[in-house]
Q: What sequence folds into this?
């Protein structure tokens, strides 16, 4: 395993971090809207479409993080055989190894896990009315992004919102069809991107009285 200096690790981490944040913004600005167009063929209610995409984003991060955790355990056990520089160094070595060997991640399993979770969610449309597999490409992109974000130190994650929570202007933008005087979130359109509890990229919500 290649040994990296602390400076190299910081530069590589910063470079990956910037690229992943940019990718997150692109998915929000472009691919999310493409997913909306696909879902509108099955679902007439725009609120339900946006709720579905939001849930897909949350589930994609959850599935990718679970897969990453399992892979990291195996990688650390393998690297520990010839590693003698301490647990902190082993953790960094494992993150760098996974970042360079993304083929360890079977993203298809995560995609199917997300689709299954959407099929059983009572708040989403009945599977008989819509085939969530039409979102496979969108979900795959989110899973790959979320998995790569776990190789950062510290990792990036999305905020999990709750309908009816008080609107937080430091975490969310209001959607254009919101009631701008309403203090509560009716539903979430897109999650905020977080790093150690700090908001890096604001999410989007709809507020209504």
A:
């Amino acid at each position: 395993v290649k040994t990296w200096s602390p400076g190299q690790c910081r530069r590589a981490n910063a470079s990956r971090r910037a690229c992943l944040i940019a990718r997150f913004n692109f998915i929000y600005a472009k691919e999310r809207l493409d997913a909306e167009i696909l879902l509108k063929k099955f679902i007439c209610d725009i609120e339900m479409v946006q709720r579905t995409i939001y849930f897909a984003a949350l589930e994609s991060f959850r599935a990718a993080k679970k897969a990453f955790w399992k892979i990291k355990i195996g990688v650390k056990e393998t690297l520990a055989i010839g590693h003698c520089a301490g647990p902190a160094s082993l953790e960094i070595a494992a993150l760098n190894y996974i970042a360079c060997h993304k083929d360890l991640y079977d993203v298809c399993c995560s995609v199917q896990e997300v689709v299954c979770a959407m099929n059983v969610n009572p708040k989403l449309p009945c599977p008989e009315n819509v085939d969530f597999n039409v979102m496979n490409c969108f979900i795959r992109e989110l899973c790959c992004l979320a998995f790569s974000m776990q190789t950062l130190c510290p990792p990036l994650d999305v905020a999990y919102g709750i309908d009816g929570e008080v609107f937080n202007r430091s975490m969310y933008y209001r959607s254009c069809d919101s009631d701008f005087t309403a203090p509560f979130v009716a539903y979430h359109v897109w999650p905020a991107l977080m790093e150690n509890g700090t908001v890096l990229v604001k999410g989007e919500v709809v507020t209504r009285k």
